Amino acid sequence: MPVASVFRAAPFRATAHRPILPEICVLAVAALLVALGAAGPVPALAVVALAGAAASTLAGVRLSRLTLGPDSPPDGPPAGRLARRRAARPRRAAALLHAAVVTAGLTAAVLPLASTGYRPAAAVTGLVGTTALLGGGLVSLPHLSRASVRAWLHRLLDQTAPGVCLVLTAWLLLPYAGVTVPVRLAVAVVLGLLAVAALAALTGADRDSGTARCRGGAALTLFALVLLAALPAGPVAGRAALLAVPPLVVGVLLVAAGVRQVAQVETTRQSPLRWPRAVLPPVAVVFAVVHQLQAGLLPDRTAVLLALAVVPPLVMRELFGTASTGPDVPAATDPTPRPPAAPTATDSAGPAGRVALLRALAARPEPVRGALLVVDLHLTELPGRLVRDDVAAEAVRRARAVAADEDEVFDLAGSGLAVVSGSGPVLAYALGARLLTALSRPYEVSGAVLRSRPSVGLAELGRGRPEDLLRQADLARRRAAQLGRDRVEWYDAYLEEQLVRRLDLERELPGAVARGELDLVYQPVLGLADRAPVGTEALLRWRNPVLGTVFPAELLPVAEDLDIMSELGVWVLDRACRQLADWTVGGRRLWMAVNVTTRELTSPDFVPRTAAVLEAYGVGPDQLVIEVAEPKVAAELPTVVARLAGLRSMGIRTALDDFRAEHASLAQLRRLPIDLLKVGPEVATASGDPHRPLLDVVVTVAERLGLEVVAEELESAHQVDGAQRAGCRYGQGFELARPATAERVEAYFEEFPSTSR
């Protein structure tokens, strides 16, 4: 097909994006050569020559096919002198790019043959020739639509921070010896600019167009040649020349593929691929810094200044990002007419507010920028409808006062309000903080004073349905409410997974007892002196066929919110006492520790219910240990003291779990009627640790109060030895015995036939 006709009429063909076998083979050969050069059998410059020659040969063959052929299309030559000149431009572009890739390949092939002193000159000569030919070829290619000044500024700010990072990377990786600072800095700037140009061309909205691929390939090719020209003339270059192979090979192949794609595929626009610009430059900087530190070098003043230079473009980009037009799609080229602005909250209350919000989200031009903030007021009282309407109107007025003029506020009626902001992420979060401050003030409406504890969910606007964006912001709002309100929460995929998991738990947990899904495992408690078991602790597990095994840390908060802790507690106590009775029949004298929440312990029927269970199974009261977590008892300390005293009066032993050994904890320890004190590994540590004096205090206080100390969560021999030396009588943890089913624990007890308390 003639080049002119292809450039003039370009029907879409899906085959343009198929991988081609010769290119794959060349890439594989280049990778093999680089591996051989890094290992040592093949000289580095020979690898550059062979890989560059292979890639340039293939690219030259591809381009030569487009260069040959008549200037006119099959339906006849174009009429007019100007038309014929325009028709000949694509063929000239292919010819210039063909000459450019051949020159790049020859430059790489000449380097091993040239003497050491002439290698930099040969590389510079090839670089100049390739640059001129690539420039002429790119100018002859079809150009994209011109961007507005605002879009051009957006693009510049988008590329400045990654460009500085890449310049810093080149500065750190370039050799020091024999190179002056100005020359090294100039080479680093050129390498960084070429790298960011290639990154922008290959990740922008036109990354799938042939023109963008040609530009990216040209930048990579020049990057490789600049790197070769910057290498020292002596043997210092070594394996550093291998760094030029990947950009050289990929660059010339991209140039050829881009021209071929222009001949087959129309230029299309897509969403810019943003993550490579945000991830690759910082990763490259980290790699360069680590490489320099491994070499025993510290960053110099130039490196520090380049690192600081990254901050201003990021701030400018964030401030400039409040505009509604994105950097990759100019507003002047958007053919879609923008609908009228959606009504604000004063005109859209109730269900109409939600509809208006969805319409406003759908009407935002591409690429969509900004954030959606969903606010729930969480009023402390439940006022009547008229009062709620007055509060909603006042909340909208306050939100409008702190939002920007171009932001839109919507009353969602009953569930709070929403704000659609055109600001970037940082400014949108700041807006959320201002909303919290403004909406937290008391509301004086209809003779009543109402208070609220608002929660704000924030989701970045992007590609997606308006319903999905609203759902994401609402999920973030729910997360903020779960974490205590008066806060702003971002939406992310992990947050959604957590919330979906929480909803599944809330749906499946009711009825788990009736379905027989609850189970207990038992962790032995050993005497640290002889390592013989003295008791066990019952640990709850929920084995759901859909959710899998759920542990108490995830299970108990859901049970408390659903108000079914009493049901779970009754089941756990009954099952633990029944198992203890079975072990007692076998002649073992062990205690069974059962954890209870403060809410269970303070219920009026807890003490008589516990006594009834012990009597039903014939278990001695001194064999049961009721554990309560120390951080939870302070809120209801008098009631907790009364319940623990009631249990001890029956002969049931009590324990204080999760003892933190703080001043307040030590002060209230005298008031609690307990028998066992359980301390964690942060307190029970080996000698020489800064916490050792604190552990001495805990053990001393426990001995004076007649308490026995149990060191729990011991997961290493180091912790076990430290707990024993500190005076702890009992220990519990993975290092001593892991939690297991009743059958496995019973088999473990068989090793200690004389087990007794």
Give a short summary of the structure:
With 757 residues, the protein is α/β, with parallel strands linked by helices.
Give an overview of the whole structure.
The protein is α/β, with parallel strands linked by helices and 757 residues long. It has three domains: 3-144 and 206-266; 336-491, Alpha-Beta Plaits; 508-749, Alpha-Beta Barrel (TIM Barrel), CATH 3.20.20. 54% of the residues lie in helices and 11% in strands. The chain contains 26 helices and 16 strands. An eight-stranded mixed β-barrel has the order 8-9-11-12-13-14-15-16, surrounded by five helices. Strands 2-3-1-6-7 form a five-stranded mixed beta sheet, sandwiched between helices. Helix 4 runs antiparallel to helix 9 and helix 6 packs across helix 7. Residues 1-19, 70-80, 144-148, 265-269 and 322-350 have low confidence and may be disordered.
Q: Specify the overall morphology.
A: extended
CATH topology of the largest domain: TIM Barrel
Alpha-beta classification: alpha/beta
Low-confidence regions: 1-19, 70-80, 144-148, 265-269, 322-350
Query: What is the subunit organization of this protein?
Result: single chain
- Report, as a whole number of angstroms, the end-to-end distance: 94 Å
Got a strand count?
16
Q: Helicity, in percent?
A: 40-55%
CATH class of the largest domain: Alpha Beta
- What would you report as the Rg, rounded to the nearest angstrom? 36 Å
Number of helices, counting only DSSP H or I runs of 4 residues or more? 26
Strand order of the largest sheet: 8-9-11-12-13-14-15-16
CATH architecture of the largest domain, by name, is Alpha-Beta Barrel
Beta-strand content estimate: 5-15%
Summarize the main sheet: 8 strands, mixed, barrel
> Averaging pLDDT over every residue, what do you get?
77
